Amino acid sequence: MSDSLVRKIIHLDMDAFYASVEQRDQPELRGRPVAVGGAKERGVVAAASYEARQFGVRSAMPSTTALRKCPELVFVPPRFAVYKEISRQIRAIFAEYTALIEPVALDEAYLDVTHNLQQLTSATQIAREIRAKILAETGLTASAGISYNKFLAKLASDYRKPNGQFVVRPEQGLDFVAGLAVGQFHGVGPVTAARMNQLGIFTGADLRLQPVAFLQQQFGKAGRYYHAIARAEDLRPVVADRQRKSVGSETTFAQDLTEFTDLLDGLRPAIEDVWEYCQRTGILARTVTLKVKFSDFQQITRSRSSAGPVGSAPVLERICRELVEGLFPLPKGVRLLGVTLSNLSTTGLAAGRQLTLSL
């Protein structure tokens, strides 16, 4: 990693972030299996502590399944405002070392430290310092992967979790990828991994043997990406301040909703959540999309766009109300509602308040 022509990329990933925050703030939860999310029948695990993961509990798992796997599981409601504030603290630490920060989520980010603000030559040292500062300032641990591209850095950050770091040097990239199962590759989901296995592709070494034409035939446009990562190649740069394309929030209900007023009440938390984002960032939207999932899991969306941004919370609420009205008469009960804002702009909120939505 000393060659100045080779990029030095760090992937920082907080360890069981939401669950670790709850264990930090509630000492009685330390050492116990914890899930952040709803314990109700239709609840979903947002995050699981490492103690819970030992029982097979994972994020996005239905709460009922998680409880079957771990009857001692403790559910804690999420506190997203707290997680966002801690995330800002962590990103401030990143900014001490580089301006090239690409957040992936509240709990992870890519950093390009090839030319860093501390003028350090070792990306390994930078990762170690960042992790130490995160621990000192937040009481939380992070893991890091260090390599010459984003794909390998992402893989490496999982290699020594929790509270560890791992380096994949340029001369190690091919061998490192060759020995991994394709299901471990970022960008290869369970369905794609199963399809590859059916084709006799089980490891990175197997994937490397496949011609690009064959992979494109089997996997479409993604085939070229798979061909590249099998060779430990990834030319994607770390993109700082990547523009967000949408912001959304949704709620799954314990009981199916059928009444108009119940749907409006159920949608209100999502409306408040996305508007809080607009207030905090100064970003406004021209398109409002209502997401609806019925009792049989059928999903539909209804959208409304305008020439100008949605300038106030009452306007957003009115649009959502009209979109909900358009659902009636309901064909069946509703189990989930969500709101997504898109066609975002950086128009300041103060200016946006002077605008109204033309319908």
Outline the structure in words.
The chain is α+β, with helices and mostly antiparallel strands and 359 residues long. It folds into four domains: 9-13 and 81-172, Reverse transcriptase/Diguanylate cyclase domain (Alpha-Beta Plaits), CATH 3.30.70.270; 17-79, 3-Layer(aba) Sandwich (MutS, DNA mismatch repair protein, domain I); 178-225, 5' to 3' exonuclease, C-terminal subdomain (DNA polymerase, domain 1); 246-352, Dna Ligase, domain 1. The chain is built from 14 helices and twelve strands. The strands form three sheets. It has a five-stranded mixed β-sheet. The termini are far apart. The record marks 18 as: Substrate discrimination. Keywords: Cytoplasm, DNA damage, DNA repair, DNA replication, DNA-binding, DNA-directed DNA polymerase, Magnesium, Metal-binding, Mutator protein, Nucleotidyltransferase, Transferase. Monomer. This is DNA polymerase IV. Belongs to the DNA polymerase type-Y family.
What characteristics describe this protein?
359 residues; alpha+beta; Alpha-Beta Plaits; MutS, DNA mismatch repair protein, domain I; DNA polymerase, domain 1; 4 domains; five-stranded mixed β-sheet; globular; EC 2.7.7.7; DNA polymerase IV; nucleotidyltransferase
